[in-house]
Amino acid sequence: MEKEGEQVLHEICSYVLSNKELSQDALDNAYLCFWDSLACLFLGVKSEECRLRLTPLFDEPSEKFSCLIPGTTLRAHPLDAAFAISCALRWLDYNDAWLAQEWGHPSDNLGAILACAQYREKREKEKISGLRILEWMIKAHEIQGVLSLKNSLNRFGLDHVVFVRVASAAVASAILGGGEQEIMSALSNSFVDGAPLRIYRHAPVTGWRKSWAAADAVRRAVWLAFIALRGEMAYPNVLSQPQWGFPDAFLRGTQVVLDRPLSDYVMKNVLFKAYPAEYHSQSAIEAALALRDEVLAKLEKIQRIEIHTQLPAIRIIHKQGPLSNPADRDHCLEYIVAIALLFGQVTQGSYENDVAADPRIDNLRRKMVTIEDKTYTSAYYDPEKMAVPNAIQVFFEDGSSTDKKEVIFPLGHPRRRTEFRNVLPKKIEYSLDELFSADKKKQILELFSEKEKFLTQSVTQLCSLFVPNL
């Protein structure tokens, strides 16, 4: 009889190889997700810190390498290309999110998908269409997201990028032409690799690694996929073996489970970001912006600011005291709220040292009280709601206060998808500045509006369009 852990691996293998028709809703969201991720990538490569993580990989652009890296003039072999793509799109914490017992960003897997698709197209002379890219994105999202529903890694101090590595390994193996045996090899070895710690995501040492950890996982996944195709053996007992298996070694015996059948649930319900900030703060930004005009006029008279939030926000982004770098600031709920109140916007530049030097920011932070609202926590974990609520109320020295501004579902939530569709084109257009000429920007924006054309383009054609020409 097959053990439960082995069944999990076999279900993932079968799902990756299945040709089951995916829903139009999932494909539509995958299209939004591709372009949203691309915009995040373009913004990421403009960051000097991001480029520092990419440039050690390459001496100069070379035609001998098979994979283009969108947003740059660089080419690389698939492993480094996978790292570079995922690193850039993840850098600003602006790409999509998935919130459950475990948290994560399923579009992190796009580096593996684009790198392996380009490699296969060039090597096999087989056209890989935009439609195929979307289908693989749906599958990677589903694997990572469904694993995240009931399997909490953070509870054990471990990072969510384990599930990025698992999803990318499974999908990359399939893209490269692997069958069940090869996918099982890459998939099981991705669990054998174990898990990195979350230390780089939390005070007092929040650091840059949180922006490249997923890219590192993606690169490793592509390596596991390649050696699987060379005949590397599998370890199908990695989720069931007592003592030496992943559950006993890393989760204190808690079993890894799939909480629902693998289909297209995650892509249909994925969360997008309207602001470059950790997702648990997105609705707090909206609440702060709504109160800004009233608060700004009485800035010096503020007595305290109450932030009512969900438990995960308190665990992840509630911080007091000094913040050491941009990576620390974009994961601080109080800093983000202060930025929204003071400046009326939150951008990737909001976390830089010159902005953080404004003494008003820390002055407001010292007046903030962050409180868990248990009804918010309950709504957060409710699979029918998947809410990410925050509320803000500002109290003044004269005894007056603002109304308590509550936002239950942030702008990128599935319940507000229509609103996000109106925001995304602006996000894309803004991301193209400083990278592309006016003509190239026009071509890219036209392609975004011509979905049917995108679906039939080859991955090489798509990536070639995304090479800067300034």
TrEMBL record:
A GO biological process this protein is involved in?
tricarboxylic acid cycle
Q: Which reaction does it catalyse?
A: (2S,3S)-2-methylcitrate = 2-methyl-cis-aconitate + H2O
Record carries keyword Lyase: yes
The chain positions of domain MmgE/PrpD C-terminal read 275-446
Which keywords appear in this protein's UniProt record, sorted alphabetically? Lyase, Tricarboxylic acid cycle
Which terms in the Gene Ontology molecular function aspect does this entry carry? 2 iron, 2 sulfur cluster binding; 2-methylcitrate dehydratase activity
The protein depicted here goes by the name 2-methylcitrate dehydratase
Origin organism is Methylacidiphilum caldifontis
